[in-house]
Design goal:
The complex is a heterodimer. Chain A has 22 helices and 33 strands. By secondary structure, chain A is an alpha+beta fold. In chain A, the strands form 8 sheets. Chain A has a 7-stranded mixed β-sheet with strand order 8-12-6-19-16-17-18, with helices on both faces. Chain A has a 6-stranded mixed β-sheet with strand order 14-22-21-20-15-33. A 5-stranded mixed β-sheet of chain A has the order 2-1-5-3-4, covered by helices on one side. In chain A, β24 and β25 form a beta hairpin. The longest helix of chain A has 23 residues. The radius of gyration of chain A is 26 Å and the shape is globular. Chain B has 2 domains: 111 residues, 2-Layer Sandwich (Uridine Diphospho-n-acetylenolpyruvylglucosamine Reductase, domain 3); 106 residues, Enolase-like, domain 1. Chain B is built from 11 helices and 14 strands. Chain B has a 5-stranded antiparallel β-sheet. In chain B, strands 11-12-13-14 form a 4-stranded antiparallel β-sheet, with helices on both faces. In chain B, α3 packs antiparallel against α4, α9 packs antiparallel against α10 and α10 crosses α11. The longest helix of chain B is centred in the C-terminal third of the chain and has 23 residues. The chains are: A alpha+beta, B alpha+beta. At the A-B interface, β4, α8, α11 and α20 of A face α2, β3, α5 and α11 of B.
């Protein structure tokens, strides 16, 4: 029907279909993509707009209801090149990270302050209860609203900061105004829309796929199946074992089977319904322990063991201790739940190649996986970064890139694939569910003498980055403590559950929950204060790790513990009938890649005279997924070159070498190190011969080399470690089993803090994700199928769930690292979960050995999981992943070896 | 915000062929709306869209046509009548918060429904029409002994007690030619409250909820339970027990009331909570609600 509506003061006459939402009308019909499509079920507030002056989620407004009404969007807020006061406040407060939720938050805060210009903190929190943010943990959002309400107190970021100064994000203005283009906002002239048919079965044989009806459907330009993949039919980060499109069998629910390109998304989705796939359901492997049983069906031909690590240090068979504690601990499947769904826009190029704009964490390794599948040489595949709406590991694996490329080549038209929220849950990997059997031995005065750990990770149907996640999950399993005698047996198994891979913490949160729970049990058994027990055993520089590695870098473990424990406790009143608990946990993780990986990052810096004086230009392929690396790179260039104006160019694969991934808490060290080296090259040139500007220098940064495991699991595995201590104060309603986190105190080892406001933001946001795993976040599976693939049912913390985070940093420089920095992005997540669960135990006295903790656990309706039998040690040849023995094609190792 | 029962796999293997709707009906008055309803019973009524458009966006809703009720002013009024209160189907939960402060339980429920963005659009009529067992507004109206007022073309109206209106999960006894005009109840002298539990502090669909309303005159307690049965339930055994209780000295009667409320529930396990916890939680919530109500008498 025809509607007349006024949007941001401009009258429009538009034809809309009755089932169209106002959000679709704004984004597709009017090109106003500042309102974001994160959930499309009114759960996240990212599409907040005003309809006749009332705040609404545009996704739930039938477009026809905009007829003769006035719509106002985020695009109306800034005028004449001047940001709206709320937008300015978001920039100054550091309330912007990935920015995907930001337009919705800016609109919601503006709405509140228009009605209530002096809103209190509580009124702000209540008003923002429907706006989800996955990056910030809401603390800086609250501060931004305070600033806009005229009473902000926290230090504000400066525009042109150097290393050590709180500095405004280089991309913040575009993000607060809604002009920053994310994967789902991409468009091109003549663009087709792609859609993906996914398996409804967790395990099935594919007998046939009939696409004839789909091909004949209106608007359809291409329907592709596995037989249409011109090159390699599989991809993968470590092993290319994952089908681009399934052919013979499907191994998990949601596995792509066919893709369609059509004139409209509606047509593409309708065509999917016409594809007739003849599936024969096969037996399903669902449980990670069952996967190891001899009679269990094999998910892959080589069996269900992906990798087994065997680590022995000292003489564990003869270990003696005064006191032993033994426990079983389990963690659930967590989702990264970035607010921005996956998207890719592929366009054919004149040379027969393809140009891809997409959401990723590592452009070059994407290209390395995409090109062989498209049967193109790497140089004919250009990958450019689109705006990344949060990552947390979920963008490390390929999602729609190859599919979009295939469709673009087949149709000779640009093709966009943009996932819905539900498809996003099926379209990326998740955090591995884990099971840990832990035995710790100590002397009577609380010195750890032995650790014996058996652990399993459920890798799901394909490899992804599971072998590397297992390395962390194994090597960290006795904690940041000196344990002279250790045996660790760690297995990653295949099941027909969704594939698991990278998520913030990358194999460190699972052991942290296990060893910190065991440390609390040990403290109780020895009657020693749990904080003191941790102090007594803390790693330090020179300590020997279970892998025999001597810890050579900085290791201020006692310092983070002591400073965290010394922080004042909150004085919030305890509600009537509730009980309060305090818990403490120490977490740690490697920075950068481990196990002999040849890790490097490249940067090019130019210093020149610009129209307004000296200026620098920085080019890297580093992905800013919201954590702020681009701003850090600009700060480094300013510091080294003494210029104020620094332009950081967009990342792509054609102009610059690999930056490695924005993961493993590594980019400040790696790309930061490359920019630092390039800048110093420029300075050296200026000093040496007074060379004339412009000067351009390219540099590559490498950290010190590491090694793999020997047959006893010994080796110089990790580059360096970084540490965090967290204390949680939690209130519990013991009758209803409801928990409310009152405060988290966090002290993070950072080497050197480059951007204090952004570093605080990493701690606050990281804590929120750890809180989610402690209390609410679980992808629930039933027969391998995800039961809750939506923001209605996969709950992530709201502004009313995340408490104030009191944070501080210990700055003990890391030898050999640029400015002594250490990555911090992942660490706050790791210790938050066990600290919160420890507080829950203290409050309730209950045994809690599984996360997330449910209300059933807290009222005693669900008993602790008991699994006294340790699973068998699988019979595999050695320490390498099983596919590697079989000579399967390598993924990213191949890239790095080729360099 | 919608509490769709466990998901099908529409995103994975869409089912059924869609039909492009021929159009939408946009009545400007109640009379027009009822006529359109009679002439096009296949058209799906929509007011705020906060439940319905979740389904539309997920391609689970393929209505042959829509009936937009957002421009029917008559549905947006509420008034006190002779000893009763009538709230029009189009009254939003934001307006409940702002205007219906005389009904504390309804306000408490409204505060927990969705977010400001949702409450600005979601209506009492939509809550009733969706007829979810987790409908927080419905739990209050059930404890109020409210009647749904349904209308049809030609000025026909029908009053349907809530217990007869709700016939199953997301199913009502509304006839195909009827629209929900509003809801009407006789305010009881005495205090009342609403409480719900979920796994986070905002934006959560009830895992269990209760609404309790005292009726001082009749010396009765009315107790409604949400998310613990196929529809919002009343708790007859708990209510009868409370009627026989000495309200000034309830003593251990409070615990028994909670126990009976739990036994009146008929919960199931699903992805939001276990039946055991739901039963436990409604017992605790009911006991607390009665204790609070009796304390407020003093």
């Amino acid at each position: 029907m025809l509607i007349r509506t006024t949007v941001n003061g401009i009258a429009h006459e538009l034809e809309v279909a009755p089932e169209t939402s106002l959000l679709t009308l704004l984004r597709n019909g009017l090109g106003l993509t500042g309102s974001k499509n994160a959930c499309e079920e009114g759960e996240c507030g990212s599409c907040s707009v005003w309809l006749d002056g009332e705040l609404a989620c545009a996704c739930l407004v039938p477009a026809l209801q905009a007829d003769r009404r006035e719509v106002r969007t985020v695009e109306a807020l800034a005028g004449n090149g001047e940001l709206h006061p709320v937008q300015k406040a978001f920039v100054a407060a550091g309330a912007v990270q990935c920015g995907f939720c930001t337009p919705g938050l800016v609109v919601a805060v503006s709405d509140l302050l228009e009605r209530n210009p002096t809103a209190s903190d509580e009124e702000i929190r209540q008003a923002l209860e429907g706006n989800l943010c996955r990056c910030t943990g809401y603390a800086k959002v609250l501060e931004a609203a305070r600033i806009a309400a005229g009473r902000g107190t926290a230090p504000r970021a400066v525009e042109h900061g150097v290393v050590g100064e709180s500095t405004r994000r280089v991309d913040a203005p575009a993000k607060v105004t809604g002009t920053f283009a994310y994967g789902s906002d991409l468009r091109a002239d003549g663009m087709l829309h792609g859609a993906t048919l996914r398996s409804p079965h967790a395990s099935a044989r594919v007998h046939s796929i009939d696409v004839a009806a789909a091909e004949a459907a209106p608007g359809v330009h291409a329907v592709l199946t596995a037989s249409d993949v011109p090159g390699r039919r599989t991809f993968g980060l470590e092993f290319a074992d994952q089908p681009v499109l399934a052919w013979d069998v499907v191994r998990y629910e949601g596995e792509p089977v066919a893709v369609v390109a059509a004139d409209t998304l509606e047509q593409a989705r309708s065509a999917l319904e016409l594809i007739d796939v003849d599936y024969e359901p096969l037996p399903v492997v669902l449980d990670m322990e069952d996967a190891l049983l001899p009679d269990t069906p094999r998910v892959h031909e080589h069996g269900n063991v992906l990798r087994h690590l065997h680590i022995v240090h000292g003489a564990p068979d003869r270990a003696e201790a005064d006191v032993w504690v033994e426990g079983f601990y389990e963690t659930a499947m967590q989702d990264q739940a970035p607010l921005g769904p996956e998207g890719a826009l592929a366009a054919p190029t004149e040379d027969g190649g393809v140009e891809l704009r997409t959401v990723t964490q590592w452009l070059h390794v994407d290209r390395q996986q995409i090109a062989p599948c498209l049967d193109l040489p790497a140089e004919k595949v250009r990958v450019t970064l689109a705006g990344v709406g949060g990552a947390f590991g979920s963008r490390e694996d390929i999602h729609a890139q190859i599919h979009a490329g295939l469709l673009a080549l087949a149709t000779e038209r640009p093709v966009r694939i943009a996932y819905s929220r539900e498809e996003s849950f099926h379209g990326h990997v998740h955090r591995h569910p884990s099971r840990y059997w832990v035995r710790l031995g100590a002397t009577r005065d609380g010195r750890l003498v032995a650790g014996d750990v058996r652990l399993l990770l459920d890798a799901g149907a394909y490899t992804s980055s599971s072998p590397a996640v297992l390395t962390n999950a194994a090597t960290f399993s006795t904690g940041p403590y000196e344990v002279p005698t250790v045996r660790i047996e760690a297995t990653a198994v295949h099941t027909n559950n969704p594939p698991c891979g990278a998520m913030r913490g990358f194999g460190a949160p699972q052991p942290c929950f296990a060893y910190e729970s065991a440390m609390d049990a040990l403290a109780a058994k020895l009657d020693i204060d749990p904080v003191e027990l941790r102090r007594r055993n803390a790693l330090r520089t020179g300590s020997v790790l279970p892998t025999g590695q001597v810890l050579e870098g900085s290791a201020p473990v006692r310092e983070v513990i002591d400073r965290c424990a010394a922080m004042p406790l909150p004085e919030d009143p305890l509600p009537d009938g509730w009980v309060r608990g305090v818990g403490f946990a120490v977490g740690f993780k490697n920075v950068a890649y481990s196990e002999g990986f040849d890790d490097s990052a490249e940067a090019t810096v130019t210093l020149r005279h610009g129209p307004e004086g000296l200026e620098a230009e920085v080019r890297t392929a580093a992905v800013d997924a919201g954590h702020g690396v681009l701003t850090v790179l600009a700060q480094i260039a300013r510091t080294e070159l003494g210029v104020e104006r620094v332009a950081v160019l967009p990342a792509d694969t054609s102009e610059i070498g690999s930056a490695g991934s924005s993961s493993a808490s590594r980019q400040t060290t790696m790309s930061g190190g490359a920019v630092l080296a390039a800048c110093r090259g420029i300075r050296a040139a200026l000093d040496a011969d007074g060379a004339a500007l412009p000067i351009t220098r390219t540099a590559t940064y490498r950290h010190r080399p590491t090694t793999g495991f020997d047959e006893d699991g010994q080796g110089d595995i990790h580059v360096t470690l970084s540490f965090v201590a967290e204390r949680a104060v939690v209130d519990v309603d013991p009758e209803l089993g409801l928990a409310r986190v009152v405060e988290i105190a966090a002290v993070q080892d950072a080497g050197r803090v480059v951007n204090p406001q952004a570093a605080e933001g990493q701690v606050e946001g990281g804590v929120a994700i750890g809180l989610g795993l402690a209390l609410m976040e679980e992808l629930q599976l039933d027969g391998g199928r995800i039961r809750n693939p939506s923001f209605t049912d996969y709950l992530i913390p709201t502004i009313l769930d995340v408490p104030p985070v009191r944070s501080a940093f210990v700055e003990e420089p890391e030898p050999g690292a640029p400015y002594g920095v250490k990555g911090i992005g992942e660490h706050p997540t790791i210790a938050a979960t066990p600290a919160i669960v420890s507080a829950l135990r203290a409050a309730t006295g209950r045994v809690l050995n599984r996360v997330p903790v449910t209300p059933d656990d807290l009222v005693g309706l669900r008993l602790p999981v008991e699994r006294p039998e340790r699973p068998p040690i699988p019979d595999v040849p050695g320490q390498q992943p099983v596919p590697e023995y079989l000579g399967l094609e390598l993924g990213q190792h191949e890239l790095m070896k080729a360099r | 915000m919608s509490d769709t029962t466990p998901r099908n796999h529409a995103g994975l293997r869409p089912a059924g062929v869609r039909h492009r709707p021929p159009g939408a009906f946009v009545p400007r008055s109640l009379e027009e709306a009822l006529e359109a309803r009679a002439a096009h019973p296949e058209a799906v009524p929509v007011a705020g869209g906060t439940d319905l458009w979740v389904e539309a966006n997920a391609h689970r809703l393929h209505p042959p046509a829509l009936l937009d009720l957002s421009r029917v002013d008559e549905l947006r009024a509420w008034e006190r009548r002779n000893g009763t209160v009538f709230v029009g189907a189009g009254v939003t939960f934001t307006r409940v918060l702002d205007e219906l402060g005389a009904f504390p339980a309804l306000v408490e429920a409204a505060r927990t429904i969705g977010s400001p963005q949702i409450r600005n659009r979601a209506t009492i009529g939509g809550n009733l029409g969706t007829a979810s067992p987790a409908g927080d507004g419905i739990a209050v109206l059930a404890a109020y002994d409210a009647e749904v007022v349904a209308g049809a073309a030609g000025g026909r109206t029908r009053r349907i007690p809530l217990g007869e209106f709700l016939v199953g999960p997301k199913r009502t006894s509304l006839a195909p030619d009827e629209l929900i005009l509003g809801v009407e109840w006789t305010p009881s002298p005495g205090s009342g409250s609403f409480a719900k539990v979920g796994r986070r502090n905002a934006m959560v669909i009830s895992v269990a909820s209760v609404c309790l309303q005292l009726d001082e005159e009749a010396h009765r307690v009315r107790l409604a339970l949400g998310s613990v049965g196929p529809t919002v339930l009343r708790a007859p055994r708990a209510e009868d027990f409370a009627a026989g209780l000495d309200w000034s000295h309830p003593n251990s009667g409070l615990e028994e009331f909670g126990r009976l409320a739990a036994s009146d529930s008929r919960p199931i396990d699903d992805h939001r909570g276990t039946a055991a916890y739901r039963r436990h939680a409604v017992g605790v919530l009911a006991q607390r609600a009665l204790a609070r109500a009796l304390e407020e008498r003093c």
